[in-house]
Specification:
2 copies of one chain form a homodimer.
Chain A lengths: L2 E5 L2 H14 L9 E5 L5 E3 L2 E3 L1 H11 L16 H8 L11 H15 L4 H12 L4 E4 L6 E7 L8 E4 H7 L5 E8 L10 H6 L3 E4 L8 H5 L2 H9 L4 E4 L2 E2 L2 E2 L4 H4 L9 H8 L10 E4 L12 E4 L7 H21 L1
Parallel strand pairs in A: 1-2, 1-9, 2-5, 9-10, 10-13, 13-14
Antiparallel strand pairs in A: 3-4, 6-7, 6-8, 11-12
Helix pairs in contact in A: 1-2, 1-12, 2-5, 4-5
Keywords (chains A, B): Magnesium, Transferase
Protein name (chains A, B): 2-phospho-L-lactate transferase
Organism (chains A, B): Fodinicola feengrottensis
């Protein structure tokens, strides 16, 4: 079975662990899984090109992630970061670990040499052997910027990189708008459109619906491929009982006028038959009874406590895909 | 007294500690000292612009050097280097420490932004407060390449960066020629020519005469300024009793046809009255009796055992400068 997963960083990585376990026999790689990863969180700091979501996926699937933090390398040290701060080099708020920096150095060097991000990602994956095909959503530069103001009246309105809003300001500044800068002119990375077209099922990971999945959908070729594929598209809610499982999705949803609920996210994505994204939607048992016009909703446990529970989520999503697929 | 010192890396750094102590009252900066530093060892590795000699000087005078190794930062760690090797990223033979990398990141970022190396060096020095003015010999890119062959017959002749010959091959490959690539078209960095013109004395540190001092002299504007300055030019021998005090100068001297001796180096530099570099030359007591046509030679202890012995060397060099200056 050819499974395509659209995913962001930490939540997406954990979900992919479950999909890989569900798709492949234990200990064998699930090369039939293609992960299409958000790159709009990417940022250049201290001259290093950093791809937080790609790295989270690569480190998580490759066994190099810090399991407590959920991002960055395990047994990480912070010598370079401290030294940069000793020089007074800004910014100091980004978590730039020593082990992580080796990844960024290789990526930056390859990009400077003219390799596209997809080729860089493939080269880095040779070390990590993630066991699934990891593709950036695009080889073009797309970066989410946040238009913020000091209050609802739009006082002191300005734009900043998503990372600055998210990490430096902990999403506490009033956000008026998210702008995926560069998305309009961006093409899908090589392999992305073909993977979606040839998929048996497309899964939308329980990632941030606005700044992770939303930015993937901001690439026109990906939106078109999702509309045209014969594969059912099944999403998993990142909101359980009205709150984000992880991250600060509840800070992002109101900005795009969506309700912070499992139903709110499904409505944001929209029903496929009405020009939206989803054929089916998995919500947590807490949200049983959720219904959204035009979308098949099922309630199953959605806490990614370990690989087994996460594999069960992937299993339920694939089962729902087969159900809606037969009906179509 | 305005003192100009031409210097390479490790030996030059240690000598500058002595000059600074001799020039300024204890605890006060000797801003009257200008150090003109070789940059032809510079190399770009893993996308980082590395200036080994400038860094050795900056770390040594700023109190950040590893005193055992003589290069790189004290309490250094090697996490990034190990991770780069885990990715299979070449080269793996260069000693790239984590603390050191912060310096290279800032330098690379500033160079990429268009700042000249002299401005970058000044910015980095704000942290280290070396207490002397540190100038790169040039803002232009000059890199020493070594033409090597597998034997005297010139079998398998090829060129490589000096660092590859020096560090990777431990200067064991048969060298036929050193080429300071880019030197012909390079200008002296801002301040260099004025410092030499306005100096009361110019000191040639006991650095490698070929690949450190020799490359500084390969910049035409510096050669001219040294020929024209009213200041006496006094050198200190890096060879004691027929062997290099440190480093592998004995591997370099024969390549340029010079004898590995205190006299051999003085002859390589040449007497100023005959169009060469030196008015005076300090040799170690071991080499007492050394004489070179047209150059005043004095024998004094030249082991840079600590700052006091090194300051005494600087003192002797300045005394010799005053002696030859009066005679002129």
């Amino acid at each position: 079975m050819r499974i395509v997963v659209l995913a962001g960083g930490i939540g997406g990585s954990r979900f992919l662990l479950g999909v890989r376990a569900e798709a492949g026999p234990a200990g064998e790689p699930a090369e039939s899984v293609t992960a299409i990863i958000n790159t709009a969180d990417d940022v250049t700091l201290h001259g290093l090109r950093i791809c937080p979501d790609l790295d989270s996926v690569m480190y998580t699937l490759g066994g190099g992630i810090d399991p407590e933090r959920g991002w960055g390398r395990e047994k990480e040290t912070w010598t370079v970061k401290e030294e940069l701060a000793a020089y007074g080099a800004e910014p100091t708020w980004f978590g730039l670990g020593d082990r992580d920096i080796a990844t960024h150095l290789i990526r930056t060097r390859m990009l400077d040499a003219g390799y596209p991000l997809s080729a860089v990602t493939e080269a880095l994956a040779k070390r990590w052997q993630p066991g699934v095909r990891v593709l950036p959503m695009t080889d073009d530069r797309v970066e989410t910027h946040v238009v913020v103001a000091d209050d609802d009246q739009g006082t002191n309105r300005r734009a900043m990189h998503f990372q600055e809003w998210w990490i430096r300001h902990h999403a506490q500044l009033h956000a008026e708008k998210f702008v995926p800068t560069g998305a309009e002119d961006a093409s899908a990375a090589p392999g992305v459109v073909d993977a979606i077209a040839g998929a048996d099922v497309v899964l939308i990971a329980p990632s941030n619906p606005v700044v992770s999945i939303g930015t993937i959908l901001s690439i026109g070729q990906i939106r078109t491929a999702l509309a045209e594929t014969a594969a059912p598209v099944i999403g998993l809610s990142p909101i359980i009982g009205g709150a984000a499982v992880r991250g600060m999705a509840e800070k992002c949803l109101p900005v795009v006028g969506a309700e912070v609920s499992a139903a709110g996210v499904a409505r944001l994505y929209g029903a496929r038959r009405d020009g939206g994204l989803l054929d089916g939607w998995l919500v947590d048992e807490t949200d049983a009874g959720t219904s959204v016009d035009g979308i098949e909703v099922r309630a199953v446990p959605l806490w990614m406590t370990n690989v087994d529970t996460t594999a069960a989520m992937a299993h339920a999503a694939i089962a729902l895909a087969q159900e809606v697929g037969k009906r179509a």
